[in-house]
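Lab notebook page, bench 4
Experiment: in silico fold of construct C2
Operator: M.H.
Input chain length: 102 residues
Purpose: comparison with the prior construct
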Amino acid sequence: MKIENYNKGKNGEDMAREFLVKKGYELVVFVEVKLKVGDKFGIPEEMIDKRKLSQIKRVAESFLILENKIAKKFKKYRIDALCIVLNEVDKEIERINHYENI
């Protein structure tokens, strides 16, 4: 189960990266990616709560402390969310919602 979740998460991150590169993203943007197959058991947006946002912010700030060159180049950062739902039948992308500056 853990490896399946890891692979699903990695797949979602790859889809998100491709989506954002096509949009021309180059800024320091931290993106929380949530991927679900179908929406019978809820939508990916429901998985992002105050606790999750706080965790993302801590990780972003830690990253910028460790990556000093990036922190100097970009004075501000932003947190976005990409919520992806795959079709249950063929696992193709049914929808992607991009939420900026959450």
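Observations: The first strand starts at residue 29 and ends at 37. The two ends are 30 Å apart (CA to CA).
Next step: discuss at group meeting.
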